[in-house]
Design brief:
It is built from 11 helices and 7 strands. By secondary structure, it is an alpha+beta fold. The protein has 2 domains: 176 residues, no CATH class; 140 residues, Heat Shock Protein 90 (2-Layer Sandwich). The two termini are 46 Å apart. About 5% of the residues have low confidence.
Amino acid sequence: MELITRDRDRLLQRAARVYGLSFTVVSALCLLVPGVVSPTTLLWAGPLYLLLAFAQWRMGATDAIGWVLLSLVAGAAILVVVVTLDSETGAAALPALLHISAASLASVGLVLTRSPHRIALLVVAFVLITATTMLLTATYQEPLRTAIMLLLGWILAAIIGVWIGASIPQVAKRIASIGRAHRAERQASELEAQRRQSARLLHDTVLATLTLLAHSGVGVSTDALRAQAGDDARLLRQLRLGTIGGTAEESSSPVATDETVLGTTLESVKQRFGRIGLEVSWHGTGQVLLPSDVLDAFLLALAECLENVRRHSGVTQAHVTITEDATTVRALVTDSGVGFDIADIDEAKLGFAESVVARLRDVGGNARLFSAPGAGTTVALEVPR
C-alpha cells in the first residue's frame, strides 16, 4: 500500500506540473501579443513568469509545500505587476491574468487534496488569490464574474486531484485481485499437471504389476515380480515425498539416460520387460542425451508402449528402434501381434491417450499409432532434443 501511495502522489505531482505549466505558457503568450502590455511590463513580468514556471516544474518533482507556496507568490506578483504597470491598458491583459489566477495557480489543487491540512491550505490559497484578482481587475470586469470564473477553475483542478487520488487505490486493488486469480489458476494448473503425472506413473507401473499379480504372475518368475514390486515401491515413495521432477534449471539440462530423475533409464526399461517375459530387440543408438523432463517422458512413453505389447498383442517379442538427429529423438515400437482397429480405442483410457500421447505433448513431442486387425502395431514416438 505504501508503494501505491507513493505512485499516486507522484502521478498527482506530475499532473499538477503539466496542468500549471500549460496555462502559464498560454498566459505568457497572451501578454506577448503586440499592444497588450508595454515593454516595461514585459521586462518586469518575464522573470516572474520564469520563476512561476520553475516552481511548477519543481512541484511536479517533489512533495515539498515550499514550491506550492512559491508558485502562488510568483503568480500573485505577476497579477500585481501587470495591473500596476499597465493600469490604462489592463483590460487587454485580462485574459492573461485570468489564465494565471483561474487555471495556472489552480493547479496546486491537484496536490493539496490528499490530507486535511493540505485542503485547508488550498482553501486559504483560493480565497487569497480570488480576493487579489477581484481587487486588481475590478476596473475591467465585474468582481462577481471574476469570482465565478476562479471558483470554477479551482474546483475543476480539485476534482481532478480527488478523482486521481481515489482511482489509483481502486485500480491497485483490481490489479491485486487479478494477480491473486492468476496465481490461483496457476496453482490449480500445476496441481492438475501433478495429478495427471502421478496417475500416469501409477498406471504405467503399479497397476501393471497388480495386473501381473491378478493373473498369478503367469510367465513371470517370483524374483522378477519381487524386483518389479521393489521398483514400484520406490516410485510410490517418490510420489509421496514429492521428489519426482526437479527444478526448472535441472529439467532444462541435458542428461544421459542413466541420470533421469525418475530412476527410469533405457537399461532399466530393457531389464523390466526382460524380467516379465517380453523379448525386446533393441536397434539404433544405445544412449540418448535429453533434458531430464523430456527424457523421463520419452522413456515412460516407450515403456507404456512395450507394456501394451506385452498385455494386448498376443506375442512375446517386440522391436524398438531408436534414432536421433540434431533436433529430434525418435523411437519405433513394433510388434507382429493381433493388431486392432484404431477407431476402437477408448479415449477415456489412460493407456495410450494419456500415458503416451499427452505425456509426449507436454514436453513438445508427439506420438503416432499404426495398426490394423491381424497386421501388428507400430508406434512412432518423437521428442525434441
